[in-house]
Amino acid sequence: MMMKKIKGMGKILGICMSVLLASLTTAHGARIKDIADFDGVRDNQLIGYGLVVGLAKTGDNVKNGFTRETLTNMLSRQGLSMRDKDIKANNVASVMVTASMPPFAKIGTKIDVVVSSIGDATSLQGGTLLMTPLKGSDGEIYAVAQGAIALGGYTAGTGNTTTVRNHPSVGRIASGAFVEKELHYALDTKRTTTIQLQQPDFTTAKKMAEAIKASVPGIEVNQRDGRSVTVTIGPDSNMVDILSRIENLNVSVDAPAVVVMNEKTGTVVMGENVRISTVAVSHGNLNIQIREEYEVSQPSPFAPAPSPYGGTSQKSVTTLPGGQTVVTTTTTISTGEEKNQLMVVPKGVTIQDMVRGLNAIGVTPRDLITILQTIKAAGALQADLKMI
Predict the structure, then answer these.
(1) In terms of C-beta density within 10 A (0-12 exposed, 13-18 middle, 19 or more buried), how is residue 380 classed?
(2) 68 CB contacts (<8 Å, ≥6 apart)?
(3) Longest dimension (CA), the chain
(4) Is the full-model pTM beyond 0.70?
(5) What are residue 147's DSSP bridge partners?
(6) CATH 3.30.1360 fits 187-251, yes or no
(7) What's 188's DSSP letter?
(8) Span(s) in the chain for CATH 3.30.1360
């Protein structure tokens, strides 16, 4: 009985280890829905022109032309004839309204919109967007937006004393537009579709095709290039069901070696596959400081003024009070350079080894950008450098 229990426990432990190893192997992969797009399934951009009202004297100057014309047309549609009238209003702003219509959006679906001023309005705070049709690239109206605008900032103050936070001329309306026209996707009648990687890579595309073949039987899978994989289903299969099974498959993503650098913020991001050869690095900052000091020589109130014929006019002492003020400049130039030694950064097998070697130099992120560019020029950095 004891041996049977031990064997039973061994089987249970073996099953548990298998499940654990399986979870570990799949944990490093990414779902196909997160790294690829399905053919025809995407967002659609919408845009419209409208008016924002209810501003507290922060709107457009109606003399700019388009705001005046828009306001006149809007009032005319409401039964008010304002043609050739002197309109004065600073609580109205002309705006462009943009939105993204998600795939499979039905009539009545609510979507978010972004409202941006195109005139000289200083703030959209407290404004309300009037009914604005949103059109697609084909000129058709797909949604209508309206509602109160929420800003991520504000502006306050009068005259030359003004406090501004974030960007008050751009606002957002959550669920501010209703879809009025649908886009039709004939997925139930399609027999062939294409899955496109968001970041093209031959290795990842091959792994994705192999994962689809192994997990979804009865379909034909072909890798077209480094981005696209074509899936063809049989007459008895449903494309929606097949895609729901495909999008949840895990694929190991193989990314190129890239180093992204932003010199404006001093940000450096390295990919997992970045490698560096053994290289000697010495980096020292050269500081040059130029300082100017101004010295003012102010004579006494009754000092003699200079004579126009040279020398000093004694007559001016009694009749012309004050003398001449002289400003002299003293310039001091100093230089200094860090005394850093030449250090060897060993060949890195992993990203941790490379970061450890670069940190040993003890430089700032901005200096690191210069060092990486120099190492790349020396041919010791096996990665692509990208500046943003």
Answers:
(1) middle
(2) 62, 87
(3) 131
(4) no
(5) 129
(6) yes
(7) G
(8) 187-251
